[in-house]
Amino acid sequence: MATERKGKYDPIEMQSPTTPSEQLPPVVPKEEELEDDFDRDFWVHVRKMFNSEKEKSISWSNAMDRVRVARLVKKYKDNGSKPDQDPLLILVKIWPQASKYQGKADLVEPLIQRFAQILLEDDKDMNKKNKYETFRDESEKTKKTLLHYAAERNFYHLARTLIEYCPGLLALKTAAIVSEKKRELLPVEIALDKENDEAAAVMLRHMSHERVQSMFSWRPDPNLQSPRPSQMSFHKILSNPKMKKSTIAILDCMVNPHWPYLPDKKSDYLSIEEEQGIECAWATVPEDPLDYHFFYHVLDSDDCGRPPKIKDTTTNKLVPNPFFNKKAPSCLNIIANSDNIDAVHHPVVRMLIRLKWNAFGQTLLSIRGITYVFFLLVLSFALLQGSTSVDLNEYREPWDRVRAIAEFATFAMVCFYIFEEINQFAREKRMYLKDKYNLSDWIGLLLLLAIIPLRAINHDSQWHVGSVGYLVNFLRIFKFSCVNKTAGLYTNTLFRIVVNDIPRFLCTFAVIFFSFCGALFLSLRASSSQSLLGGFEQVLLSGIRVLAEAQPVAEEYKGYNWLSILLLLTYMGTVIVIMLNILIAQLSTTYAQAKYNAKLQYDVDRMLLLARMENYPFLNLRVKHYKDGDWISELNLAKELLEFTEERHSLETIEQKLNSLRDLMRKIVKTMKPVAVKEQ
């Protein structure tokens, strides 16, 4: 077992790849140095290329591109074919720095990508023996490859083309510079460090899932004396709103498709026949696997990639990791507080939520819900029984003694909930303020505490405070609606409707309300009958009652002049007939639209609840219920991912649901390739 002490990290491991202050100012080339002008010879060659029999299907623009590339190649050869003047290197390194392309990456990248494809296809000359797969910029200290330059500038179209023709570029690293404490870097690491989301996502999707997982996992030494942190922090990528595509690409790499009827691939084969047989079997792999292996160790790790548990070499069982940082926020917590909807709905995240929810989440939330119901019961008895007592400070009667016990229990539970809120704020800090329920928690608890000094001085305002506090604390029970899926979805849908539709309706109603009330009060002055409604405040109250109770302003209109009657009838018709019916229709439409948001919010609420439960003192749930992965069958995956899709036909067959699931999973596993496994 490892000794419990923090690992010491080599400075070169933690050094940021590049910082703006370390970079030399780029040399901006002159436009005439990029390529020659389009003279008469250029257009003659374009015409010949376009009319060439070898290039029958070539377009005019493609002919221009080929001639321009040919001129770059000719200039390269005329200058002695120096490696630092390679046309593809010049395109990737020098062209983006030209003044006419500054700040116009969307203009220069498609051009470079087309030229690069022409050069990469030239396997008889420029890319002979796949030269560009090992090509490096020897004039640069870190000896970058072409893919490194594409990663630096977020040229994701170019990166995709380079990977298509030279996949080995993904594995080539820059040279380390020990004096500057710069380690070797893969192209994808440069893209992630520079927050080039598109380029990083392209590279991640073309890398093996084992390699991607290792980038975000810690690197322990054999004796666990000085383990190193992960090369990249998944927590930082999740927290960065600019890296949404990379986040999804990384999550996709946490899914490994499985075909159980196929032989395992090996790194070393006993014979050529065995190699050919296994490779041919894998060459005919069907698109849809029977099940999937979901990896959770990266999602459950801390900010340095350390998992909660590690495998003990002696017992071959998972044991708590002494280096794991329990205070680090979980990835689920970061995803829940982000606005990355695709990450919330990702199959790996959904299945990890289900795993934790079934393991401890639903049980603990049910216990907390039952405890809170008990709190509401004793609170109700303490307040309602107290409201019937003559002297609240006397506890002589039997029911008053029971009330005293209820008041003490209420006070104790209020103190417990306040301590829990303080502890939660200390752990979550800024994330704590984003939760809509936390404000209502504090309001309800503080109102109950405010009753104590008011009762001590026997002030009647204690009942106003108690009334509002009682209402707020009862409404807090909605925070436990996630115990049941139906209740959770219904509560979130209702919340969306109240937040979105009711304010808009009230704004429109306020305009009509004040205009009609003011006009009515002024019209009554013409007949000196303003006293019929008892003043302007009574007019306002009557106008609100029309909306709330659907009752007329007055039972009879005797004493009202014709204009007042006309205004009353118009106002009631507008509010009761038109506005209320429009509101009902609007709520019906919004209810259907709010279902999707409610499903999303339900998943987010469960993630937040699970993250808080994992941080409960003394329970250590994050470590206790850790699981590094799980095998998920197609059927179980379909039940979870398609469970909330109410728009689907109720009589849909299992096969139809599986086909829908396969369409979804093909987007994740389509770029994955089986990886050879070393024999033990």
Q: Overall mean pLDDT score? A: 81
Low-confidence stretches: 1-28, 644-649, 671-680
Biggest β-sheet, characterized?
Answer: 3 strands, antiparallel
Question: What would you call the shape?
Answer: extended
Membrane topology: Multi-pass membrane protein
Protein name: Ion transport domain-containing protein
Keywords: Membrane, Repeat, Transmembrane, Transmembrane helix
Organism: Exaiptasia diaphana
How does this model look, in words?
- The chain is mainly alpha-helical and 680 residues long.
- The chain contains 27 helices and five strands.
- The chain has helices at residues 11-14, 31-34, 40-51, 60-78, 87-94, 105-121, 146-152, 156-165, 187-193, 197-206, 209-215, 234-239, 244-252, 272-283, 331-336, 341-344, 347-387, 398-428, 430-434, 436-456, 461-475, 485-526, 536-549, 562-614, 621-624, 634-641, 654-669; strands at residues 255-258, 291-295, 309-311, 318-320, 629-633.
- The strands form two sheets. It has a three-stranded antiparallel β-sheet. It has a two-stranded antiparallel sheet with strand order 3-4.
- Helix 7 (146-152) packs antiparallel against helix 8.
- It is extended.
